[in-house]
Amino acid sequence: MDKVIGETKKAFLTGNETVAWAALAAGAEIMFGYPITPQNEVMHYWTRMAPKYNRNFLQTEDELSAGFTTCGAVQAGRKAFTATAGPGNVLMQEPFGMAEAMRLPLVAVIQQRGGPSSGTVVYSQQEVTLTTFGGNGEGMRIVYSTATHQEIYDYTIKAFNVAWKHRFPTFVLGDGYQAKMREPMEMYDPEDKGIEMVAPYPLIGLGGEIGAEREPAHLCNIYSLEEELYEVVLKHAAEFEALSPSIVEWTEGECDDADIIVVSHGVVSRAADDAVKALRAQGIKASYFRPITLRPFPQQALRNAIARSGAKKLLVAESAYGQLERLIKQEIYGETIKIETLFNPGVGIIDYDIISKVKSVL
Amino acid sequence: MKVIGFSRQDSFGLGETGAMLNPQARWILRHEGDIIMDVGYGVHGARTLNLVEGADESPELKVLAVVNYTRPMTNSPARIIDFLTGLGRVDGIIANTHLGDETTLEIVCQGNRMIRDTVRQLGMDVMYAAVDQKFSNIIKPGDCEIPLKLIERYMPNAIW
Known about the structure:
By secondary structure, chain A is α/β, with parallel strands linked by helices. Chain A contains 13 helices and 14 strands. The longest helix of chain A has 22 residues, at about 225-245.
């Protein structure tokens, strides 16, 4: 596949444009989608550019179909993706569950909007639970929560490689602010950074005699017996848990000696970073921890930060009513550190909010 | 200055339907005085001008295309031509190459020269280059070989 970007250079673009360019650079062959704000421009820019690079697009009749057609395309060996938000993410949980069940290398970009229901078209972090543990499965998904346009670009490219290498559905979790905001970032062709893209491969229609020349390709999302399902789910869980240490990513700052650790993800972590710098400048021993992967969660890294810092409190800051907090509580069960919260469901959080909250709880 | 558009209160509670065109904006060309229309966000860009009554006929209306060489859609001569020819009516070009807070004089001049040379192929000239006034001490009128207009960025940062 020809290079898309050419010379590596800085560009000024929206998060949605960034997704479209990153998918092109990653070698995505087709996008399936259905319009919903704030991800619409992913589709718009993809449809503008796809014909120029011999790529394809199908607008389906709804998000259920967009998810299932993505499932179908990847089974046929096509590097496919979709993007959605809010109620669209809700509808896509059924195909996402199929991708979990059949271990399909599905890639989806979620630009969170307000909820519940149609909520707002603007921004939130209220799709954490849905994206990490949605559907009727066990959350065998990989979810990257981005904070900058550079990360949207980097992790969209990475998502395709992770999905096709490990065959767990992989998500890039952005939000409406990131989707619509413009900021500078560096666009590049992956090979120019030494990133080798995993070539897609068909999962069905394989040659060779089953049993003699190859193992059967069991792509199944329904079983006759409870015991069959039980074995498959346990096998997938074991593989997911074994893989998790090599997948988890996080960043942290000032965690060597702190009274409080601010935990946030995505775009809110930009505010946390600024807040911690300001608090340190005022002599307050604040620190921050940011999970980049929400699933699997970097639980050992957070436990280590708690132990190393000597902090007595965690402050969980999120633009939701406790979705990240629940995830943290489940992941660090047994820790005795007190958890404080700053919940702004559907509303942005700036450094001032975090600074004020830290001062009020220390 | 009078701003014609929906206020926060006007659109409160409308959800996605709040993104509708203010009726006054549809008839904006019938107003007296100097009128500036800011159109072009998103994929449909300047095509939204078709919502304004008289936009095709008004001899007073000038459609100025703002081009930023760091935008991926306009980061090469071929893409600039593709972009401009897709806009329909264009009466003038404003070169607006920048990278937000990461803008350098080199980026400004290199990009704007590229825009100037490219639009000449279409028989057009760059009217002026818009440059952040933070460069006022180091940029001279002849540096980019394009007339300059120094601008102040009133919202330089996002909320972070």
